[in-house]
Amino acid sequence: MNSNDNTHGPLVERAVVSFDLAAEHHMAGCQPCQAERDHVENALREFAAANREYTTRPEDFWEMQAARIRAARTESDTRSRITMTLVPSVVVLLLAAFAILGRAPSVRPMRSAVPTAQIDADHELLLEVERAIQSDTPRALEPATLMVEEGDGTLPLDPALQNKETRSHEN
Amino acid sequence: METALRSALGAAAQNITAEDFDAIVRRHQRRVHRFLLMLLRDPDEADNLTQECFLRAYQNRSTFRGESSVETWLLRIAANLAHDHARSRRAGFWKRLLGLDGNDNEGIADKLVTSEASPERAFLAREDARAVWDAASQLSQQQRAVFLLRFVEEMELNEIASALGLQVGSVKTHLFRAVQTVRGRLRNLR
Lengths: 171, 190
Description:
The complex is a heterodimer. Chain A is an all-alpha fold. Chain A is 82% helix and 0% strand. Chain B has 10 helices and no strands. The N and C termini of chain B lie far apart (48 Å). The longest helix of chain B has 23 residues, at 18-40. Chain B is mainly alpha-helical. At the A-B interface, helix 1, helix 3 and helix 4 of A face helix 2, helix 3, helix 6, helix 7 and helix 8 of B.
């Protein structure tokens, strides 16, 4: 039996993959299998050597790569630091915005305060009218009264008008 | 050194200094790059992913618990990155379209350093290495990763299992299939 028609194949694989007592026992007594195993292991050794050679790079390459990794790491650190700074600021801004928006509804009653102010103004006007009524002569009639007073000097105001004024005042 | 780095990463990973991490990069970059280059067969992508691997390791250093070696942890990140890269169909499509596919099958055999004395034996050794390379190309990416870690990086089965997140039994199965494929190739050669 030569290595090309080896029928104990799986034992060769098992022996190559890792230590296998049954496979080792078989290899000890089977020359073709032993030769096949040597061949495969030798090819794998050559392959590994070729790979190491294939992946060999000059020292400059490794230094450049390490420098790029260092730069990427520094950038990552900076980015995370910025994020750590920005996140609280954004949270504070959002809270402030919510606080301002939360206050906005309390401003709305100010609209109802406008009529109150108007009411106050009306009240002031009423008080002024009342003061004018309380005085002897309505301010609007003051010029006429003056003219009458200038005419006879002693004539009082019309009693009916005075009563009317008094009634309105009573009211 | 390694113990110090492991304790630095394991105990206070967040407090690791820039100098500590630079030391980790210098110590492991060759192996990570070699693994990615063998897996992807694209020098540019291997370079990019090596950089990405260390950056991710730095950003996720708090997740390292020291249960495996730093190297195994890094190779695991590298394997995940390679897996994600392989899944990126778009990259593969454009590379194939532009003829930039990194399957440098010829190059590997030319790099063969052989101690064989006679030119004939050197030629046969080169042919064997190329056959293994071709066989590795036929493997799934996970099988190839297992195969390369075992026979090029010479890692133990449990280390491979840890690096790739597999059971040791699965690693053995992958290796068995890979060696079977290699053996088939070598048989066709003779």
